[in-house]
Specification:
binds coenzyme A, about 25% strand, about 325 residues, five-stranded mixed β-sheet, about 30% helix, 10 helices, 14 strands
Length: about 325
């Protein structure tokens, strides 16, 4: 799916908030849990540490502070939100949805609220959906949440996955603005590659003797897919919007692995000062990754009003998605 957003209403991000659990799990501690080393993890992934939820913490506990921060940043009351989309593969439970639980906790009784599953690309899919509903006039103010608590679905004996992932959530408010905002989206899915990154025993295909469902991954296949698709999706959306890499002020790729980001950055031709990287501190937080990266760029002063921002996510499905936007908010 690809489309530009040049006619009709202008929709933009007017508030941004994030939250991660307090507990830091550094590579040195992982060395005591599985047969790995700080050196291997740093060299192959660039990840130094990640955040891990407490046993009693679920997605809503992590997403709620992010939602509240985003609403405050936008200066919007929860009661004025009429759409909540939560991108996640680790909802509190299969149903009720995390969206509905958050709507209740926040106090947004008039909001349509639901969850969306597109792996680590979920936040990009959710942005595009909310954009479409606002542009079509179906909703006026949306809260888009990307968050995951992947630590809950990892096999903590599997060194090939535990080193990669972390927990975290981000939220943005989408509203109509006078000009600029989103310029276009490109989204895709290839279920044929789906079994490269999957959660067996987790749905209606689960066997009777199912144990705890844990993430299974063919790392090399996902690596090949990721390096190819980050470049392809970025080039496709830029071409469709009549822009080039030189026009982009800030590139916000999914934070999966520093080697994947470096590959895409070099291939696309971005100078490093225009690329947001925080995978070293958070690992791969799945749907939380891009909003967490946006928040870091806002904090370090690179996310400015007028900046052309390119975001690209990829993940389980296999799925991918890019959004191109002209940032409209004044950030500190
Ligand atoms: C997982 C990943 C880091 C592995 O890096 P790699 O360079 O491809 O490493 P390989 O899979 O070729 O494995 C190399 C060796 O390291 C070993 N290894 C795997 N994980 C290890 C770990 N945590 N510590 C130490 N050694 C490890 C492997 O067993 C293998 O050993 P062998 O050669 O004796 O068989 C990399 O493939 C990757 O990042 N893939 C994408 C994953 C991803 O982003 N998933 C989420 C997408 S949203």
């Amino acid at each position: 799916m690809i489309g530009t957003a040049r006619e009709g209403r202008h929709i933009s991000i007017t508030g941004l908030g994030c939250h991660v659990p307090d507990r830091i799990l550094a590579n040195a501690e992982l060395e005591t849990m599985v047969n790995t080393s700080d050196e291997w993890i740093m060299e192959r992934t660039g990840i130094r540490e990640r955040r891990i939820a407490k046993p009693e913490e679920a997605l809503t506990d992590i997403a709620l502070p992010a939602c509240r921060a985003a609403l405050e940043d936008a200066g919007v009351a929860a009661g004025d939100i009429d759409l909540i989309v939560v991108a996640t593969v680790t909802p509190d439970m299969m149903f009720p949805s995390t969206g509905a639980l958050l709507a209740d906790e926040l106090g947004a009784p008039d909001a349509a609220a639901y969850d969306l599953s597109a792996g680590c690309t979920g936040f990009m899919y959710a942005l595009a959906q909310a954009y479409g509903m606002l542009a079509g006039g179906l909703a006026q103010r949306a809260l888009v949440v990307g968050g995951d608590v992947l630590s809950k679905i990892l096999d903590w004996h599997d060194r090939s996955t535990v080193v990669l992932f972390g927990d975290g959530a981000g939220a943005v408010v989408l509203e109509t603005v006078d000009e600029d905002g989103f310029l276009g989206f490109e989204l895709g899915a290839d279920g044929g590659g789906g079994m490269s990154l999957w959660l067996p025993n987790s749905g209606s295909r689960a066997g009777e003797a199912n144990g705890r469902a844990t993430v299974q991954m063919n790392g090399r296949e996902v690596f090949k897919f990721a390096t190819r698709i980050l470049v392809h999706s970025a080039e496709t959306i830029l071409a469709r919007c009549g822009m080039t890499v030189d026009d982009v002020d800030l590139y916000v790729p999914h934070q999966a692995n520093v080697r994947i980001i470096d590959h895409a950055t070099k291939k696309l031709g971005f100078p490093s000062d225009r690329v947001v990287i925080n995978v070293d501190r958070y690992g791969n937080t799945s749907s939380g990754s891009i909003p967490l990266a946006l928040a870091d760029a806002a904090a370090d002063g690179r996310l400015k009003r007028g900046a052309l921002v390119l975001m690209t996510g990829m993940g389980a499905g296999l799925t991918w998605g890019s959004a191109l936007m002209r940032w409209t908010k004044e950030t500190a």
